[in-house]
Amino acid sequence: MGNTEVIQCFHPLWIPVFLWIPALLTRECPSGAEGREGKGREGKGREGKGREGSHPGVSLRDLPVPHKESAPLVSPQEQSRDGPGQAGCPWALRGHRLRLHSSCCCPDPKMGRYLARVTDTEATDVGNPNLSYGIVVDCGSSGSRVFVYCWPRHNGNPKDLLDIQQMRDSSRKPVVMKIKPGISEFASSPDKVSDYISPLLSFAAEHVPRSKHKETPLYILCTAGMRILPESQQKAILEDLLTDIPVHFDFLFSDSHAEVISGKQEGVYAWIGINFVLGRFEHTDDEDEAVVEVQVPGSERHDPVFRKRTVGILDMGGVSTQIAYEVPQNEEVAKSLLAEVNLGCDTHQTEHVYRVYVATFLGFGGNAARRRYEESLFSSSLLRNSPQAAVPDPCLPRDARDELRHRGLRLQLRGTGDFQLCRERLRPLLNRTNGTRGSLNGVSQPPVHLQSSEFYGFSEFYYCTEDVLRMGGDYSAARFARAAQDYCATRWSVLRERFERGLYAPHADLHRLKFQCFKSAWMFEVFHRGFSFPESYGSLKTALQVYDKEVQWTLGAILYRTRFLPLRDIQQENFRGIHSHWRSFSFVYNHYLFLACFLVVLLSILLYLLRLRRIHPSSPPLWIQEGLPPQKIPG
Fold first, then answer.
1. Of 13, 78, 377, 426, which has the most beta carbons under 10 Å away?
2. How many domains does the chain have?
3. pLDDT for 74
4. pLDDT, tens digit, for every residue of 321-357?
5. Where is the active site (predicted)?
6. 616: domain range?
């Protein structure tokens, strides 16, 4: 024990002990009653002590309670349409993630939630040694894109996930790069794949600090374009990547980091990404926040988990359409359509286990559906008359013209702009069964809890509602149908004149205008008849960005694939906690050990002195100096 600890052991309360020793030695046989006089009554001095933390006029119960979180803002543009936001929260924009009650400083609850969720849009501090990085390359059918992500050290709480953000360069723009064509174009020359993808990796290497390269995981994940290739060609492409990339780059790149993912995996990653951005994976003990009680797989013997309700996703691309949403434990789902996802870093913990229904429908994307529809028009026209005659097409704007070519034949189309008739013509393409649980192409679909569910629609769901009709955000079937019907019935010449005046979205072109009527009808039918959402359903939001971030399935991919990384930080945090507790315990233990030893020694001395007095009752007190005459002992 050091000198400092010894000094600290001499507590002021020990002073009476030292004062009591001479008194004990001068007394012959102190009785048990002596020494008790003057002992204070316990509890005295506590009168009038106020309640700590109380305030005469304010209590926590008096503070305003924010309303339960509704759908968040999709983008600043949507906020501007709803009205100006409330000022008064300047610190919310200083590059930190804040959790603000909407009633604290922003009277507008919607704006308060927006500020609470908008993440850091400042340039990533590459000089911060506590930041980690990850790279995901999305090898799609039309091109490949690289995304660079970063995250700080894990906070040590096993219930929290890594706070992964998209890296931003010095201009505060997301670190993203895209190249064309798709990787599947190199099926016949797989030895050139590494050269094809090298510019993406060089771009990422320039942004990730050199000192972090060896610990930065790199994932190259291929989607629809590679799925259609024979397995032998897929294997040849992946082998070239696994062989050449480690030679030129120092990223953490193992055999499992390059693969062709299934449509099911892609759907799960997209579902993870949107729910992570919305904060639906943040567990809380607050009853106002924990809005759903879930019995997760593996927790049958434990209490149910209280957590936020997740949202479902709808995604319609050019080739396929996808749906994904969480289903309860007691809902039976075909194994091929069910994914049980554990986002936690500990496989034995069930707080982050989710059962997700995922279905991908090839041929049900906007462009693929249009091709199938045109084939049906061609077939029906050949049965009726010569293909040279113009065929009325209710799915083209009024008076719009189009030409089809099939097997050397041409077919002229003339738009009639009948939205209702177009929907009727498209229904057979859904291939929907008559069963109550049947979905697109006869695939089984578990029921959706319409009263409490919430869905986000991406890609074509957003383009159909926003690019031309300018209705992105909250979806209303009645409003959308009226707007689409009016658009289809408008003459093509009028639509072109509006386009030239710049009345549509900047990235809307004449191709979008020509097929807007068809895609609006197809989206409407897929959502309401294919997926069986009633037209009264009001909890769909179409979005391109959520909280100023373009949500990509790559975010969900890196979140899932790095889920075990927090284990190191959690173990270090636990070690620090144990070490700190042991130091505190050690000091207290040494403190009382010294006191116990002191009392034992003191008691031994006292017993020894008392024994001497019994053996030599006439001996003088020990403190009488030598040379003084002995005192007479009476008796």
1. 426
2. 2
3. 43
4. 999 999 998 888 999 999 999 998 776 677 789 999 9
5. 266
6. 569-635
